[in-house]
Fold this protein.
Amino acid sequence: MDRARRLLIASPPGERWLLGLAGERLVRVEIERLRAPDRVGEVHAARVTAIARGLAGAFVALGDGTEGFLPAEEADPARPEGGPIRPIETCVREGELVVVRVVRAAMGGKGLRVSRRGVEGEVPAAPPSAPGLIAAAPARAVSLLAEEPEVTEVLCDDAALIPALRAARPDLGARIRSHTGPAPLLDAALEDEVEALTDPTVVLADGLTLQVTMAPGATVIDVDLAGGSDRTAASRRREAANRLAIAEAARQIVLRNLGGVILLDPAGLSSRRGAREALARAMAQALAGDPVGARVLGVSRAGLVEIVRPRVRPPLAEVLGAVDIAFRPSATTVALRALRALWRESLARPAARLRLRLGRMVGEALAQEREAIAATEARTGRAVCWRVDAALAPLAWSVEDAGDG
């Protein structure tokens, strides 16, 4: 798997896009919503509200009332890695105040996951007397840069982030640079490439596609190979297709930040001895260097490659919308895209009087994004104007000339 060598940190209104590239190819993507960070890395004093023996853990309340889950394996700060797990009731008691770190974001309908392990240096000298925030999470751009040791160049359009980035990677020095050009760092082509990662279909070659299906229990990546009837030629074609599909599936897993159980259904499985083991080795090699640490468990009797990947932050599709049978962008995602389009159009046509024409749901979402609107106005030097058009579909939008109206 190619690791990121260059990192683009773009801060369009209301968001921060973190794009890792190997050459010109995207290999890592994360999008932060500045109004709703994922909170991974925060340290809190939290109150134990309930012991859940059946779930082998306890529920805790943070200072803002958010609930978190403390698993038994994370409840004993003295437990060595791989050591025996004590029953939860011997680790914490109901009503107790404990110091925890958020180690997994809320996602998939489940709340935050927290841990007492590795927080010794965060415990204040005076023990906290009530739930509350002890330490904020580091900026995601900073922690991601630390996770990508092969990055040798960083381009960032938020000058305020530069000192923290250089402190995280002093070896890079002046190779961490500010983007000062007139055009936005996040151009429309990159934006389209990232948003295509919500499409379940990935076309690899003529007749060869990946179909990515996200479900609550597992994500299935189906390799679909069309055509071919000669048995020998078809066998060779399947093997070549699987090699190509495995490499791209590994890339898509990282780009889309898929987690939990992942099943790869290859384009047929050779009957040759050792074929299953070879398929599992190829998948493991393709995922080598995954920054989150995916593991290949093997190939099932049904011929599926079984992968598990830790869930730490939400998958990209969940950040941008919702996945049921198909992906649906959220109204916030659409509203922020409309703001980005207005920003770019204003730069291209500085004399034009522009406004947004929005469907009802987009208009409602945009009205909540005060900080993003203010950022757009600061960058364009003009007020953001929009009108809600009842004739439009709820998630439709366009940039239009306001004229004298």
The two ends are 54 Å apart (CA to CA). DSSP finds nine helices and 22 strands in the chain.
